[in-house]
Amino acid sequence: MRSVQTRPDAKIYQEIIRTSDCHSPSLLLSELANALWKTVRFADLTRDDANRLLSDMTSIPYFTSDDTLIAAALDIAISQEHSVYDCLFIALSRTLEAPILTADKKLRRKFPDDQFVDIKPG
Known about the structure:
Layout: H1 10-19, E1 23-25, H2 27-42, H3 47-57, E2 62-64, H4 70-80, H5 84-96, H6 105-110
Parallel strand pairs: 1-2
Helix pairs in contact: 2-3, 4-5
């Protein structure tokens, strides 16, 4: 698993998160904590670094409860044959009429009509 911090465009993502009014389904915290746990367990991330990264992410000002998005996410997931987890982000984006910040190329390809933040490294 590749850490977000080792991505060539990591600083761009971090700057966007730091300077923008980012919104996220509350699921993001569970996904992040699980990814950090795996990275501590199987790679070279320290417990202190994992806790710092989690703390950084909890500073996102706007977490939307998944229960307000779940019906729309399920509908999208069924119609697009895609995971409900990812569709929570699609549902939130559509609800807010805001672009999605992600490095997930599969998600971008699966939902070409949705808005995504364009990241241009360098």
